[in-house]
Amino acid sequence: MIRSQEPTRPGAPGPLVALSPREIDILSLTCQGKRTREIARRLGLSIRTVDDYTWRLCQGLQLRGRVELIIWGHQNPRALAGVPVHAGLHRAGCKCGALTCSLDEAA
User: Where are the alpha helices (DSSP H) in the chain?
Assistant: First the structure.
């Protein structure tokens, strides 16, 4: 995961992140509801490797777990196309480009 080094202020969007091709694969399959074991089988990886990718995605995107990762993936479909997007969950009204976000409301 490539992250920008922009400083963040409270209520501001998280840093811009660009996902690697493998991270996009893991996120896409996770958002499709696939379990870790199935993702590992499809991608030819160990279960531990898929778990590590999932953990690193959550850490890099400032998320608290798999459920938030799925929500984030659905809010940021451009991330699955390799377009840099902001880390963190989004709420209604944001103009950051995600489907739903309120980061602009806080500014």
Answer: 21-31, 36-43, 47-60, 66-75, 103-106
In CATH, what number is assigned to the domain containing residue 40? Answer: 1.10.10.10
Distances (CA, A) of 68 to 13, 72, 107: 16, 6, 23
CA–CA separation, 64 and 49 (whole Å): 19
Is residue 55 scored above 90 in pLDDT?
Answer: yes
What share of the chain has pLDDT > 90, as a percent? 50
Number of domains in the chain: 1
pTM over 0.70: yes
pLDDT above 90 (res 16): no
b/e per residue, 75-88, with b = 16+ CB within 10 A? bbeebbeeeebbbb
Torsions phi, psi of 43, nearest 5?
A: -95, 0
Segments forming the whole domain that contains residue 64: 2-106
